[in-house]
């Protein structure tokens, strides 16, 4: 695979955009907050199980507030069903929230007319997990990469496709090829080139490297870091892999059952996690990924999600049934996301004692 | 600083179950290497598989040798295209049409290479159980979970419908699918990823196989679910005495699950040895590159950004383009001319630990 585009120190964000084209997309760059989710709620109605019974409702998001600042990529971690992909789909305006708002550069995405939304989409693009499923096998790479461009001339399109492919370490001549001619890592580069072509400020990446081999994953992670630096792209990165999030993001939000349960810098969260669930995630990491002795036995984890009854009421902490710190209060009072003295925000009544335990065990 | 806590948290809901099933490090004693070991369950020697590619025949496996003792655990690690899944497919007799196999695969002393389809079908799902990566595609969406588990019981064990159903329920309990009795009639789409993987494990276990082949069984699952499934597999292997051939690209998974490890690249085993020794020594340059390429939690930032990950230069060559000498030569920092002349032989490092590299001393000196 071609080496990723090297760091180009001469390229700065001021002046002509390195991907070419006019500069008007940078209107609003002064606004520090790129994406703002406020009290986002999403309920899905499931198919009726019985004719005369009300259809069951799943609350995928239960009031998520999150803001992404330009230049500070945010990682979302959590298990499947935690709502992290639903969050990503809302950030991309692919879903309409049941409640709350999604504001990108100050505009409420869900209040925009379809045409305006389409125009606004150039500011935010998405990279999906599966580089095999996300590229149309019957289109040439050039056409795939150019797809997000609207109203660009043929000449400009060609130039920008070439620039975009160059930015991800592919050749301009690759535009003539079909996706099947590329390896998984190269396909993911094509997907990233497609996301880059509109010169977005925000790229929502849903598990962008989890389908890739270890050595290719390293190349793509390096590429993501380079692009952030060269083009000022900020990522909203969804991943189950804490090490990937740690590598790319300045901030991490841990989701559980549709809520953010802990948020802070990776260094803080991974050193002194204050939510029992964050600690459980860290402990589930394979030992050698945390730099510990590879053969060390994993210590006990929390109760399995599938083993506990999920009958939590709306007022209870959703993690309580699996939690070792559970007390009566957890079942009657929903813990709010609150700041801790150490700097992170956490939704747990007993965060102080959790973080003391975390610090103690990591110091050992 | 990021070390795993030594003490476990008390778990309230299912304390015993989870903490007891916890993946202990596998027994440190490696299984005997000699193919003539009396308790060898699976012996693979000089296995070569040649595939027809659009550009002509290409060797997918270039002489694989290993043996797996009854009840032992062995891992195949490597990147896509290295031949790890191909090795498993060869053992299961599921190679793509047109593949030519030479060498020998013996299970319980029975030669599998050249076995006809009917005889292979009698082994597959019966003596050999399989768990694949993606539980949704491994399960048939048009049959209930119970029927799919019962299928192999009825086929191989000639069980009656009701006996097979009762056995399916017992298996679902064994893989700890919650509310197993209700789930027997559930459809695959009604289960979560982890639950589906439990079902595929139940299917693999149904006939009490001697050998369980698990091909990336947790890659599609969440971190905490992955831990549960690995713990379950580990416990089942320990309890039932079946041998485990595990395929993964994940070094961490391997560290937890297998006593011996084969690192594969370009259709050859480039390093083999006890898991802990392979991780500690990382004798082969490829093993070293694989280990260094992963992001690690808690890497300190320099100037507000993480240091670049160490990547292996170049890319995995296509099978047909593999160099005739050491397959890793074109990407290796230690390459010298003799590397390209002939495939390097396995060079012993310690008893039971070998690497196919003629520059082991130089590689080690540079660490």
How would you describe this structure to a colleague?
The complex is a heterodimer of chains A (364) and B (367). Chain A is built from 11 helices and 12 strands. With 364 residues, chain A is α/β, with parallel strands linked by helices. In chain A, helix 4 (154-167) crosses helix 5 (184-196) and helix 5 (184-196) runs parallel beside helix 6 (214-231). Residues 1-16, 21-31, 288-302 and 305-312 of chain A have low confidence and may be disordered. With 367 residues, chain B is of the alpha/beta class. Chain B is built from 14 helices and 12 strands. Chain B is globular. The two termini of chain B are 23 Å apart. The model of chain B is unreliable at 1-36 (pLDDT under 50). At the A-B interface, helix 6, helix 7, helix 8, helix 9 and helix 11 of A face helix 1, helix 8, helix 9, helix 10 and helix 11 of B.
Write the layout of secondary structure elements.
The complex is a heterodimer of chains A (364) and B (367).
Chain A: E1 33-45, E2 57-69, E3 74-77, H1 84-91, E4 99-104, E5 107-108, H2 114-120, E6 124-127, H3 141-146, H4 154-167, H5 184-196, E7 202-206, H6 214-231, E8 234-238, H7 242-248, E9 251-256, E10 259-264, H8 266-271, H9 276-284, H10 328-332, E11 338-339, E12 345-346, H11 351-363
Parallel strand pairs in A: 3-8, 3-9, 6-7, 7-8
Antiparallel strand pairs in A: 1-2, 1-4, 4-5, 9-10, 10-12, 11-12
Chain B: H1 15-20, E1 40-53, E2 56-69, E3 73-77, H2 84-92, E4 100-107, E5 110-111, H3 117-123, E6 128-131, H4 135-138, H5 145-156, H6 161-174, H7 180-183, H8 193-205, E7 211-215, H9 223-240, E8 243-248, H10 251-257, E9 260-265, E10 268-274, H11 275-281, H12 285-293, H13 337-341, E11 347-350, E12 353-355, H14 360-365
